Each structure stands twice: as C-alpha cells, then as structure tokens.
Amino acid sequence: MGKKSRIIMNRNARKQHVISEMHFRHFSDSNGNIYVYEKGKATRKSTPHNECVIKDYFECKLPGYETNFEVENRLGKLETAAAPIYRNLIAGRELTSVQAATWALYVSSLFLRSRKIREELSPGTYANFVSGQLETTTLRDDQWRIFNKFGRLIPLEEIREYKSRLVQTYADPALQQINSMNDSTPNLASALVSRHWQVVRPANGMYFVTSDAPVFTLRLHERGSSVGVGWGYKDTHIGFPLDPQHLFIASPTGVEWVSPIDETNTLAFVGTMAQFSYRHIYAHRDSEDIRAPMERHSGTILFGRDAYTVA
Prior knowledge:
Largest sheet: 5 strands, antiparallel
Radius of gyration: 21 Å
Oligomer: single chain
Mean pLDDT: 89
Low-confidence stretches: 1-9
Number of domains: 1
C-alpha cells in the first residue's frame, strides 16, 4: 500500500493496461500482490502487472488512420506525471495549479478508458451517431451544402448510401473509445477542476477498494444517493479511491466531508465502487468484508441504461 509508483514506458507495448498499473500498485499488499474479486468466483491472488491487460486495446488500424501506439504512449506520459500527485494527495499536501490540471486529466481519462465505457456506453453512443447522420433532415442539409458548393443536386438516396458506407468506418470499438477520450477528457477535467477537492479516510478498521472502472459519480439527497449521474451537474460528486485508506472526492462547492467518514458512508462508497465495476474488484487483502458487498452490488449498474443514459 502507498508504494512509490513505477512507470515503464514502452513505445511498442502490445499488452496494454486498460486501467493504469500504477493505480493498482497502490492497492497491493506488502508483497506486491493484489486480490481479485469476481462475482460468483473464488478470490484469486494476482499482481498489478497482470491485471486489466488486453493486447492492442488502444490500437486501431483503418484506411488512412492508424494509432501506432500513440494513445498508449500518451497515457503512459500522463500516468508518469500523475504518480507524484498520488503521494501528494495521500500526504495532504496542496497541489500546484499544474498538478491539479494534470490530476484532472488523469482521473478523467481513467473514467473514459475502461472496458465498461467501451462495452456498455459506446455502442449506444455510436448508434445515436449513425442515426443522426442518416436522418432525413441531416441528409437534406448535406444535399444543400453540396449544391451550394458544387452546383450539383445529388439525389437524397445517393447521399444516404454514401454516408451509410462512411459511418461504418467508425464502427471499430477502439476508434469509438479513442474519439470519446479525445473529445471528452478535457470537458470532464474542467468539470472536475470546478469542484471542491478532498481526500477522506474510511471509518476506523475499514478500508476502500478499487475496480476495473475505478472512477464513480453520485448525487446526495434526503433519501440517500443516486449513482451514475453526469459530471456536468453541479451537485455531482466524483470519487476515485487512491489506496485502501484514502478516497479522493471532488464535491460541489460548499460540501465538506468529515474525515474519517463514518461506517455507513464507508460501506456506501465501497458498495458504489462495486456497482461501477465492469467485472473485477481489487483489494489489498482477501476478506469477506469485501466479498459480501461485491456479490451484492457488482454488475447492478449498466452504463447507458442505469447510468450516463444515452438519449
């Protein structure tokens, strides 16, 4: 726990970490092991290096476009810059404006790069994109622009057939996610920077976990909380576990958490982390205290249906 993060840059890394290996190191035990929980399966012992790894996850090769490890290397540089910020936040040190901006980009990118985003949210976003491109009003706008520029009136069905072929270029899941990261990371980072940042500890004798989709959002109300609310709402809290004893939370201005938080809130946060997981929960130990909320909450939130709904 709380180990100094090590980043190894590899310009041609075929095996790519969906979620930062550095992040998982903060949840390893004194021997460098991490415990993996999956619903309906026995807990297994692993290492941060071997978790959330998929061959060529951030790679995409299309006519006229190839990632060529660009995304992997860019994320690696961001992780390197974020490594000392973990330590500063855990130690309670104030961040510089540059460090705060870097941290906001790092947390935002972790949210957008998960398999949960790719498998659950991106398909609906892509379907909406295709539908919008092939709507009659959009096609008529295209028809009018072509006429104004070239003086030719192209039949609507001809434009539709051409665009139907064109949008298939964007069907690649990696490309969809990369485009989403490129477009949305700065916006999410701005939403993060606008909030009040705090680091809280769990109740005495308790601890936080992390997952393969470690960034979560929630909104507090009189009856409890709603999870999976959009980053753009002013009353949204954005949480990210730093290690078993520290949780980073960006809250609406004026909201102050008392640290350590009580047992009820600790359990609520652990349950939320389990809800947000794609498949796995990670912790520094094997414990029934983790198994129980994982079995109860894991997989109960589907992005695009229960959270971040695609209109």
